[in-house]
Structure formats: structure tokens, C-alpha cells
Write a structure and sequence with these properties.
mainly alpha, elongated
């Protein structure tokens, strides 16, 4: 595990310590790891929402029937199988 040293202002240090205590974290490091994980989750959620909006705006809507879903799954399985066979040593 790597150690990270970051200079912060007195005001930010006080805020971090206060949030740490309010959140029931055992250490500043524990609180900061939690804060970074939350930021990563937030970024991933924002990306997913952006991609979903792109999908909604990407063209004419289609009806996703059970048959259509089965066809898409079959195509995906084939792509995965083809990719797996390409990666196998001869």
C-alpha cells in the first residue's frame, strides 16, 4: 500500500477532521478513502447517465421484444466465444 502526503490549509484540515468525526470514521485516512470512493462512484454514475442519454438520442426507437432480446444475447455470446477462441494458444 502506498502512502500519500498532501498539504492542506488549516480550514480544510478542520473540515476533514469534523467530517471524519461526524461520519464515525476511525481515521482521516479512512474518511479520505471513503470520499475518493464516493467521487469515483459519482463519476461512474454521471458517465452511465451520459451514455444512456446518448443512446436515447441516437436514432429511431425500437421495440425490445423478447425475440429481439434473445437475438441480441445470441450475438453477444457469439462475439464472446469468437474473442475467446482468438485468444487461445494454438
Amino acid at each position: 500500500m502506498k502512502h500519500l502526503s498532501v498539504p492542506v490549509s488549516d480550514e480544510l484540515n478542520e473540515t476533514i477532521r469534523k467530517r471524519m468525526a461526524e461520519g464515525g470514521f476511525g481515521s482521516i485516512a479512512e474518511y479520505l478513502r471513503h470520499a475518493v470512493r464516493q467521487e469515483l462512484d459519482h463519476a461512474a454514475q454521471a458517465k452511465l447517465e451520459r451514455l444512456m442519454l446518448e443512446g436515447l438520442e441516437s436514432g429511431e426507437p425500437i421495440e425490445a421484444t423478447a425475440e429481439w432480446i434473445a437475438e441480441r444475447k445470441a450475438k453477444l455470446r457469439k462475439r464472446v466465444e469468437d474473442r475467446s477462441s482468438d485468444e487461445r494458444p494454438e
